[in-house]
Design brief:
The protein contains three helices and three strands; from the N terminus they run E-E-E-H-H-H. It is of the alpha+beta class. The protein is globular and about 55 Å long. It has one domain. 32% of the residues lie in helices and 26% in strands. The protein has a three-stranded antiparallel beta sheet.
Length: 88
């Protein structure tokens, strides 16, 4: 009998589509259960934000293997343009 690894405890973003970069739907899963879905109207960025929000809401720690990468994205903030700063 083939032994499959246990499903990850941490949230995962799943993208569905025919080709890479052309997704029609995204889902966030935890322990093989879909906890949130987005349609083709929702963007990839919305899926990422939902996945990060899930970590925060459920008070989960990042998986050790991915912690540095996820913390980098969490702390990265978009820069305001010079035009926005000077118009204030």
């Amino acid at each position: 009998m083939l032994s499959l690894p246990s499903p990850p405890v941490t949230p995962r973003l799943i993208l569905l589509g025919e080709r890479q970069g052309n997704h029609q739907k995204w889902m966030v899963s935890i322990e093989s259960l879909i906890v949130c879905e987005g349609s083709n109207l929702a963007t990839f960025l919305t899926g990422i934000m939902t996945c990060f929000s899930t970590f925060y809401i459920l008070n989960l720690q990042y998986q050790e293997e991915a912690a540095c990468t996820l913390e980098f994205f969490q702390r990265k903030r978009p820069r305001r343009s010079l035009r926005t700063i000077t118009n204030k």
